[in-house]
Amino acid sequence: MISIKQINEKDIDLCYELDSNTISLWSKKQWANEFKKEGVKVFGLSLANLVIGICVLHMVLDEVQINYFAVNEKFRNKGLGSYLMSYLIKVCESLNINKLVLEVSKSNTKAEKFYSRFDFFTVGIRRNYYKDGSDALLKEKILTTK
Ligand SMILES: CC(C)(COP(=O)(O)OP(=O)(O)OC[C@H]1O[C@@H](n2cnc3c(N)ncnc32)[C@H](O)[C@@H]1OP(=O)(O)O)[C@@H](O)C(=O)NCCC(=O)NCCS
Fold first, then answer.
1. What pLDDT does 146 receive?
2. 2-142 architecture in CATH?
3. Residue 139 and residue 115 in contact, taking contact as beta carbons nearer than 8 Å
4. 73 C-alpha to center of ligand 1: Å?
5. Residue whose C-alpha is closest to residue 139's, from 102, 91, 98
6. pTM (two decimals)
C-alpha cells in the first residue's frame, strides 16, 4: 500500500540512506540542518512501510521551495513520483501557497521532463552551478488559488 506522511528529524538516517542511494545531495549534517530550518516540512512516500521517496519543502510566506525530491531508483517510472508531487501540490494549495520553486540541473533531462508535466516553467539559469559544472535551471509553478 502506498502512503505519504510527514517525517521528522528522528528519520535523518532514513533520509540520508535514500539520498546516498539516489542523488547523494546532502551529508547527514546537511540533512540535520534542513530539519532545523523554520518552515521546512519533509514528506516520505512509503510502499508497504518502506520509504522509497522523499521531498523537502521550505515554506516562506506564500512561496514554497522544493529543496529535495527523489524516488529510489528501483521504484521509478511507475507513477510514484507523480503521486508524491500531486500530493504536495494539494498540500500547498490547502495552505494558500501561490508559487512552487525549485532548481534542477540542465543535464537532468528526466527530472526536467517530470517537472514540465506539472507545469513548472524555467524562469532563470545559474551557470556552472553544480559540482559537475552543469547549469541549474530555476523553475516555478504558479498555483491557482480558489
Ligand atoms: C524525477 C523523479 C523524481 C521522477 O520519479 P518517478 O517516480 O520516476 O516519476 P513517475 O514514475 O511519476 O514519472 C516518470 C516517468 O514514468 C512514466 N510512468 C508513470 N507511470 C508509469 C507506468 N505505470 N508505466 C510506465 N511508465 C510510467 C511517466 O509518464 C514519466 O515519464 P516521462 O517523464 O517520460 O513523462 C525520479 O526520476 C528521481 O528521483 N530522479 C532522481 C532525483 C532527481 O533528479 N530529482 C530532481 C532533482 S531537483
1. 55
2. 3-Layer(aba) Sandwich (3.40)
3. yes
4. 10
5. 102
6. 0.95
